[in-house]
Amino acid sequence: ANGTELPKAKDLWYKLSPEALSRRPSPLKTAFKYAIDPKIVSLGGGLPLPAYFPFESLSATAPAPPFQTYNNPELAKDAPMISVSVDRYNHANDPGMIPLATAMQYGQSDGCKPLLEWIYEHTETVHHPPYSNWGCLMTVGNTQGLDAALRLLCSRGDSIIAEEYTFSSAMETAHAQGVKSVPVKVDLEGILPKELDEQLASWEGPLPKFLYTIPTGQNPTGGTLSNERRKAVYEVLQKYDIMIVEDEPYYFLQMDPYVPGASKTAPPPPPTAQEDPEKYSKFLSKLITSYLSLDVDGRVLRLDSFSKVMAPGTRLGWIVAQAPLIERLTRQNEVSIQTPAGMSQAIVYSLLSKWGQEGYLDWLVELRKEYTHRRNVCLDALSKYFIEPTGYAPKGLGEYVEWIGPTAGMFFWLKFNARKHPSFGKLSPLEIESKIYEAAIEHGVLFIPGSWFRADQDPVDPKVIPGEGEDADIFFRGTFATVPEAQLIRGVELFAETIAKEFGAAN
Ligand code: PMP
Ligand code: PLP
Q1: Which parts of the sequence belong to the Aminotransferase class I/classII large domain (predicted)?
Q2: Which residues line ligand 2 (CB under 6 A)?
Q3: Ligand 1, CB within 6 Å, residue ranges
């Protein structure tokens, strides 16, 4: 951060939960700086001797930037690969290596220093947080990052707000800590700032502690909130002095605009930096504005993760927030995860330092291309099987279904009006949803019912039948990330056949 020009974050210490306030530094950790000082003979720290770590070295092979042929079935066998390795002591003084003697040792609860520095640099490049005293802390992914954020800011009996449909494990995390989640109204794009303002204006009791939001490629809706709405939501939350936790595992899975029929041609490889010297600045300028980059107050905790851009099993993520909050979270790491696994940090750091910041952007550009193509395949299949006339639906299914083409993430979200189902009235929308879910499985395809993602944890009576003028929408979540293209297309077709049959569209 450019500390000379930017102001510091607001003092938000009063936002901390009693749990966060009562955390004390571990006295043993305060002695750690002496234990690793080569001038001091340490009989103090209970550190096992690195010579007894039964790992002399670790190595991995990975694709090499700029990934021109990676994942192209005809060329991938020739894709250039690189090897990365880590050894116990790094006698060669390779700056791109965290020696195992360090990475596998007790020590840094906020994460291995070289990796953290790499992440700082990446965060500055992508988000330019607009205040000076921001910091980063490693987590074992956004699942744990949210658990930490809840402990930092909430106590039993508090509430948070979240998109009406949201990541169900996030709601479970809150629920188990006694924190109530209250839905905020969304459309297919995401949060509606005006409705949010009205909801908070008429809020009864203590205001929610934070907004939990997945603004980019939302899970489950696939929605990406526009820059304008993000600004408006931020202003509303400033007005009520509410914190923001942005959970952004899909941030870099942003896509180029959808052009109907685009899936027919294989996407060309992205240019190399030699071919297009502005490759990186173009990529960065296309990325949507994060809440972190709007955060003049320091009220945002951004949760980032390598899960969707490398692999979920790296179990590596990080939190970006104002330094006083990062300090509290470091105390929390000390007594919970300590730090993510040393092997994971060491090998991922080796790869990142071999790739370099630009090589990592090359990787993200490549992912963007791949996800854009899969999204195109999915949307072309949706048009073909849901909108165009077919044998099973001579007039198409357009009158039953609605979606917006996702511009980020892994998910697509189909909206149906349960009133159009022939059993509406005898059955409630939730019963119709569950009937369709089962019929789809019977027909050989799995989609997840939207109601499974509802942010409010109070059980609703599944039998309630809405009256005239009341909402009767039901939703299903699909993903275009997981299966090969042909299966993705077949899955969409199978679901369309199920819907045609369920809604009686054959005649
Ligand atoms: N429990 C005890 C009794 C310990 O001595 C230690 C390590 N000093 C720990 C837990 C921490 O163990 P771990 O590295 O498995 O989190
Ligand atoms: N947050 C959201 C919104 C997700 O969709 C997921 C993925 O399943 C996660 C968090 C989990 O992320 P991580 O693997 O980083 O814990």
Answers
A1: 106-466
A2: 141-143, 167, 214, 219, 247, 249, 305, 307, 312, 317
A3: 46, 338
Rounded to the nearest angstrom, the distance between the alpha carbon of 46 and the centre of ligand 1 is 10
Reported pTM? 0.94
Alpha-carbon span 55 to 343, nearest angstrom: 10
CB 311 within 8 A of CB 60: no
In this structure, which topology does domain 389-503 adopt according to CATH?
A: Aspartate Aminotransferase, domain 1 (3.90.1150)
Q: Is 353 helix (H, G, I), strand (E, B) or coil?
A: helix
| Alpha carbon of 161 to ligand 2 centroid (Å) | 18
Q: What is the pLDDT of residues 30-87, one digit of tens each?
A: 787 787 788 999 888 788 999 999 999 999 999 998 887 666 666 667 778 999 999 9
Full strand arrangement of the beta sheet holding 210-213? 134-139, 317-322, 300-305, 243-247, 210-213, 159-163, 180-184
Distances (CA, A) of 237 to 145, 200, 224, 297: 21, 9, 19, 11
- Taking the centre of ligand 2 as the mean of its atom positions, its distance from the CA of residue 445, in whole angstroms, is 24
